[in-house]
Design brief:
Chain lengths: ~140, ~140
DNA sequence: TCTAACATTAACGTCAACGTCAACCTTTGC
DNA sequence: GCAAAGGTTGACGTTGACGTTAATGTTAGA
């Protein structure tokens, strides 16, 4: 089966059920299909998406608000696809793309800055590490 | 003068006075010297230390607790220096160094994992960026 | 020396990001 | 077909990381 209930999703993502619902409530995670009775039915895509969110949260230290900004970009791109058939004005479409590009630019610059700082931090750790191993050598000739 | 009062430190570090005192309360920042009347007098070292904390917090997304772990390592190393004169048993010193080394190992591995994930994230951004610029090209031949 | 400008502690307030609990409804396995 | 297991929506509780305010003391400069 390719439909998952919330507890399956919780187990695979490492999040609690509460958190998963909370992310949906915030608009971070797309609201899944429901059964007749109201039970949420997730797809693989939801799970992958959640893993990305966890990544951004834990690894990049993004707030849920910041992640929201990122998700919005993704959704605007998806949204564009859906209206492809209808004749949305070209100028407007272009305008939208340019805005997304600006947003992306900012995000990429931010990531690069973070990686730079992280490298610095790593080097600091390395320096300390060297000092420690040198110290150990003195005791174990 | 090489002594700073809390407002100077606040201005240079970008933190509020409240936050600076809070970090001291948590043990993140070393308690500074005081005047007769009880006013805190910081040194350049305090300021640099604070900047590192801000970096770890904002860039690496560390919680104050995680930063605390890092600060502890630094302090244990400094602490070792101070007792250098006294005859602390060699075996004990070595033991301490080995513990620090283990701690550092874990931290370095964590950082490396974060950088890996960050690279993934960057690539994802690049992919999206490409799609967007391709979309723009279609409108501007 | 006296006052305006800044510091200190203590205590309560706030906001994000969930945890937890209750009351109730669905599914599932025997 | 029925009980146990699991899901749903509120709603209130908690924790971390500070903000804010009050009451009071300290410094610096005219």
């Amino acid at each position: 089966m390719n439909k998952y209930k919330i507890d399956d999703v919780a187990k695979e993502s490492g999040l609690t059920k509460r958190t998963i619902r909370y992310y949906e409530e915030l608009g971070l995670l797309e609201a899944p299909e429901r059964t007749e009775g109201g039970m949420r039915l997730y797809t693989r895509e939801h799970i992958e998406h959640l893993k990305q969110i966890v990544n951004a949260r834990d690894v990049l230290g993004f707030s849920l608000q910041e992640i929201q900004d990122f998700v919005r970009i993704r959704e605007e791109l998806e949204g564009r696809k859906q209206v492809y058939g209808q004749t949305v004005e070209d100028a407007q479409q272009l305008q939208q793309l340019l805005e997304i590009q600006t947003s992306l630019d900012a995000q990429i610059r931010m990531i690069e800055q973070k990686m730079e700082k992280m490298t610095e931090f790593r080097q600091e750790l390395d320096r300390i590490y060297t000092r420690v191993t040198d110290g150990i050598k003195k005791f174990t000739p």
